[in-house]
Structure formats: C-alpha cells, structure tokens
Design a protein that fits this description.
By secondary structure, this protein is mainly alpha-helical. 66% of the residues lie in helices and 8% in strands. The chain is built from four helices and two strands, in the order αααββα. It has helices at residues 6-18, 21-28, 32-46, 62-75; strands at 51-53, 58-60. Strands 1-2 form a two-stranded antiparallel ribbon. β1 and β2 form a beta hairpin. The radius of gyration is 11 Å and the shape is globular. The two termini are 22 Å apart.
C-alpha cells in the first residue's frame, strides 16, 4: 500500500466522520468536488473501494474501515 499524500487521509477521515463529501470539504476548506477527486485518487492508489453510498451520503466500506481507524489514530 502506498499513500502519496498525507492530506488524502484527512479527506478520508473527515468523510467518514461527516458522512458526506460536503461535510468533509467544509471541515477542510475544500470543495466537495475536490474531496471526491481526492477519495477517487486514494482508492486508485490502494486498489480498493473505501466508501459505499451515493454522492449525498457516504459510509465506510469494509475495505476502508481499517484505514480509517489507522488514520484517526495517526492524526490524534
């Protein structure tokens, strides 16, 4: 697993916490489109789907749960 940008993990964590790309974007000062692009890039780097759901609501996919826990711990 190779994560190229630590800020990608911040988008991951904020999306998991807020449940939407809008909430993640708001918390990080970026647009929902930028948050979406970041998650797509992260998923491509990892070769796994990290979230399930629509553009309106996101929930962490089973494949993303361990990474979210790791990232939350790392940022705390």
């Amino acid at each position: 697993m190779k994560i190229e940008n630590i800020s990608d993990l911040q988008v991951l964590v904020q999306t998991a916490r807020g449940g939407t790309l809008t909430a993640a974007g708001h918390a990080l000062g970026i647009t929902p489109a930028a948050a979406s692009a970041t998650l797509k890039r992260l998923e491509a780097q990892l070769g796994a789907r990290l979230f399930e759901g629509s553009t309106r609501a996101k929930r962490v996919a089973p494949e993303g749960q361990a990474l979210v826990r790791y990232a939350v711990g790392a940022f705390e």
